[in-house]
Amino acid sequence: MGYTRVDTEMSSVRISRIRRVLIVILVLNLAVAFAKLAWGVISGSVSMQADGFHSLFDGTSNVVGLVGLYLASRPADHDHPYGHGKYETYASAAIGAMLILAAYNVGSSAIRRLMDGGASPDVTAVSFAVMILTLMVNVGITLYERRVGAELRSEILIADASHTASDVLVSGGVLAGLLVVKLGFPIADPLIALGVAGAITFSAWRVFGQASATLTDSARIPSSEICDIVLAVDGVLGCHHIRTRGSASEVYVDMHIQVDPARSVESGHEISENVERAVCVGLGNVVDVIVHLEPLDDYQSEKTAEEIDAGLAD
Predict the structure, then answer these.
(1) Which residues make Cβ contacts (< 8 Å) with residue 256, sequence separation at least 6?
(2) C-alpha gyration radius of the chain
(3) Tens of pLDDT along 212-237?
(4) Which of 34, 177, 211, 215 is 20 to 30 A from 186 in CA distance terms?
């Protein structure tokens, strides 16, 4: 037995929306990166240059996301019966790795400036204008991408939003550093750059955590939530051993259900199919359900009781 959601049109619309978001944000990230890098070089601000490189990594992560999305959108085949959806997770992990690289670049540049010294950056009104404008763009990107990512349950968009959010932290730190430099403390420029490197590293940790939940088959939906749907199906007397895995947008479920032992095989099979369909319909991110049918007896009743107790404990 087993029920698989077949919604090719919805999947195509989802992928198309994610791709469109990534392309728009790629263009914006490249524009922001160029502005910061250009004026950072002109003014001699190491923190602005570091911020520009970080924005450039944002653009690179968008390209990685587009490649990962293309691979993930391919249909299931003989070698990949569960589809290629985990490529989206791999792409998000790659974005996390880019965050680590960005943190290293920002931090190493700051340490070199602290150790070697160098000319104080020339902070002007243009410096503040560039940073404020690019900061506003990044805030808008982050909010938009995070909202769409949550709506579409896209690991790529959520990871990329975290990447862009780290850029907001960097830009905010650089802006504060430029103000302190303007007040006569040039050492603030590399110190601020060093501080935001830590913030970028934290963002990478969160991205890796989300990817790990998918790649290690962590439970995606509370068993009690699924059990409530299952027990509402006519003919089901109990359920247990509920397991979930997959990405946030594509969850696979398998479970055991119990029915009256006097029922015929045909009747039990029909109940199982009703359960599989009910779970897929009731939970929008579930794409596949497999049910194992059992007759309800004393032994099976104990299993159901244990499952309910475990759900209450959670």
Answers:
(1) 239, 240, 241, 291, 292, 293, 294, 303
(2) 25
(3) 888 887 878 888 888 889 989 999 98
(4) 34
Domain assignment of residue 33, given as a range: 3-215
Beta-carbon contacts of 90 under 8 Å, excluding residues fewer than 6 positions away, are 68, 211
C-alpha to C-alpha distance for 263 and 279, rounded to whole angstroms: 22
Are 164 and 297 contained in the same domain? no
SS3 292: strand
Same domain membership, residue 182 and residue 55: yes
Quick one: which H or E segment has residue 249?
none
> Vertex 283, ends 279 and 288: CA angle to 5°?
55
- Distance separating alpha carbons of residues 233 and 3, to the nearest angstrom: 15
Residues 150, 156, 159, 160, CA torsion sign: negative
The model's pTM is 0.61
